[in-house]
Specification:
heterodimer, A: 353 residues, alpha+beta, 6-stranded antiparallel beta sheet, 8 helices, 24% helix, elongated, B: 281 residues, two-stranded antiparallel sheet, 2 strands, cell membrane (chain B), MetI-like (chain B), Sugar ABC transporter permease (chain B), MetI-like_sf (chain B)
Chain lengths: 353, 281
Amino acid sequence: MAAGIYVDKVRKVFGTFEALKSVSLDVQPEEFTVLLGPSGCGKTTLLRIIAGLETETSGELRIGDKRVNGLPPRNRNIAMVFQNYAVFPHLTIFENIAFGLRMKKLLNSEIEPRVKKAAGMMHIEHLLDRYSAQLSGGQRQRVAVARALAMEPEVLLMDEPLSNLDALLRLEMRAELKGLLAESRTTTIYVTHDQVEAMSLADRIAVMHGGHIIQYDRPIEVYQNPANAFCGGFIGNPPMNFLQAERENGHCRIAGAALPGPSASQGNGRVTLGIRPEDVLVAETAASEHLTGRVTVVEPLGPHNLLTLAVDQQLFRVTTAADSPIKSGQEVYLALAPERRRWFDTESGKALH
Amino acid sequence: MITERTLPYWLLAPSLVFLIALFAYPFADAFFIAFRADGQWTFDNFRTMVDDINFGLSLWNTMLLVLIVVPLQIAIALTMAMMLTKIRAGRDLVLYVWTIPLGISDLAAGVVWLALLSERGYINTVLSALGIVDGPALWLSYETPVALFIAVILAEVWRATAIVMVILVAGVQLIPKEYNEAAEIFGASAWQRFVKITLPLLKPSLQTALILRTLLAFEVFAVVVALGGRDLPVLMGEAFLWQFDYRDSGVASAYAVLILLISIAFTLVYLRVLRVKEEAE
């Protein structure tokens, strides 16, 4: 049975450092939520508080209908996958996967089929008699996930489970996890600093920064309509471009062009324009609303070329077709897709609509 | 000559020479002496040893001391090590205080406990001031062998638990805390985590501590002499008596050989029972 998770105004203070500043989050039953943010943003702290490994300074936590504040982890009906796997070295893989079931005092006749089933899902049936030291990192990762799945928990917590794997293996495990977890329909909270992982796995992404949840929405929303400049810059590779603009009577002046500004909050002053590299068309002739820029670097990446430009002395990145003839040093004109332009308050970074 | 290849051996040489000259050679010599009498190979020294009136008692006392003191020390040291993991502020201070007995020689430790437990010692003073005993009670006399035995146990535990604790504290620190957290998440209570995770992962340190402590416990001597003189015969004390009072190096060496054999036997048992399976390392 999958349960929802409700986090209400949770704060966490370590000494004088406020790791979480009144964070609220609701995860629906069977939902897959990713906590995404740079290191030190509080994502792991939040996960550990939900797990019960860390105690919140204030705020309320519920899993399903049960208030879990003050409950030890074992009474929260959760399972967790750790970053360093934490596969017990002195137990066989079978006993590792069976650990939680044994703690529940299940009979051997109940434990064995559940261990085998979980091992089967992770394709490690052949490793059950071995010890952790005899396995590769990827295999240990599978054991850690199998141990969590065997519990059939209400809530599955994953703390950067793929970050210790090499790139190729990570890609493979990511797809496998996604299929597996969609099938098991377990409510999942997954912590990562890898925005591609977050985009690929999440039903909803909670972007964290400086102890706050800045945006909590579907991946495509977070990608297309970042709540602030930080979200835009953190998600996407290469990240969103930002250009400083001067506001004048509803229009914004950037690099010699006048663009229609954000409809809300008329007035003068500085705003920031955000646009993703793939939403810019590179033209060799000028037109109204085109920005002028000089190409400084051309990086052919195979599927496309990545251009780095100076626009009004600000850094700007654009992707073009791999066969594009544009060369470094060339002056080009940039057409920004009108429906993809995003505006931010330069001072606070908040999105303007 | 000294080259890059031979340098390590040159650096090892002094300690090797030292060990051979001052440890291996005297030891071989003691072995030799134990099996020689009147210029012949013989078991006479061992026969004299076994026939001696104090032999059985000293063997029994030593064994009993080891069997009580060592498990007690392991249990106390484990408790101390586990408590230390829970302390944040002042942890180092507590650790330093607990290790003070490490710096005290065993004879000095015996004398300290003598001052506490003797007829006119602190404990008697306090007890009679509180009216619990009428006049000084005898703890360390041949008439109160049990009290004397307990006093020796107390002094030994006080004196030599710290070394076990230091080894175990180092071992506990090597266990990544994620193992305990994982066990906690997967339903283990504090006691289950201790028994199922901490203890098995502590096996190598436990093995080291047990071997070290047991070997030293079989050589218990100075504390016993300080507290009980000859009222509590132990193997090492008998060896000392035969060497210096009876002037019989042969029998003294026989005792030394016996202690060595018992020590080797216990070490082998520990190595076997507490071995860590190679694949589970």
